[in-house]
Amino acid sequence: MRVDTFDYEVRPESVAQRPLEARDAARLLVLPGSGDLTHAFVRDLPSLLPAGALVVLNDTRVVPARLVGRKAVSGGKAEVLLLRRLPGGSPETQRWQAMGRASKGLAEGCSIDCGRRRGL
Q1: Domain span holding position 82
Q2: Per-residue pLDDT tens over the stretch 44-82
Q3: What angle do CA 64, 67, 71 make, to 5 degrees?
Q4: Which of 76, 79, 115, 116 has the fewest CB atoms inside 10 Å of its own CB, making it the most exposed?
Q5: 47 DSSP assignment
Q6: Within a domain: residue 94?
Q7: Domains: count for the chain
């Protein structure tokens, strides 16, 4: 899988920093089975769903899993996305399955210094 296909630029002003006070006023992008994309609001959702539709809600919390650091040998910038914690280890030696990228690539066994983070 080429993870670079998931990269895209989003202007910072386009990303909500806090939820709207009126939560049903949040914008909703509608992709119909045929036709053009349309814009709606969360309050419009009941009228957009067919009768008997199953709605699944996700109330999970986001883990701060994006780490930015520097390669230990060269000092080049690197970014790591933690995917899932691997079994075993102690709090000091946790192991994770992760994806990483750097301007000049990451070699197998490369060490990245992301500073000390707690709570993961």
Answers
A1: 66-113
A2: 999 999 999 999 988 887 777 888 999 988 888 999 988
A3: 165
A4: 116
A5: H
A6: yes
A7: 1
